[in-house]
Design brief:
Layout (H helix, E strand, L loop, with lengths): L4 H29 L5 H14 L1 H8 L12
Length: 73
């Protein structure tokens, strides 16, 4: 079942305002598990985690910045 445009907008706000800060805390804690990682390893972990959250949520954010396609003109 596909989400409506309004539902996708609401979920995208919840994700960006609530879930994203929590995800950042988790990402920083994952990097902190390594004793003293080199800057390259730290960069790779942050880039990997930065891409990892986008892939499952891509369908929610797709088209949210556009005008509502279901709205009356």
């Amino acid at each position: 079942m596909a989400l409506s445009y309004k539902a996708r907008r609401r979920w995208s706000l919840v994700i960006l305002l609530v879930a994203m800060p929590l995800y950042v805390v988790v990402a920083v804690n994952i990097v902190a598990l390594f004793e003293r990682p080199s800057i390259l390893i730290e960069l790779l972990v942050y880039v990997g985690l930065g891409v990892a959250w986008v892939l499952p949520l891509k369908s929610i954010f797709k088209g949210v910045g556009q005008a509502d396609p279901e709205a009356e003109e």
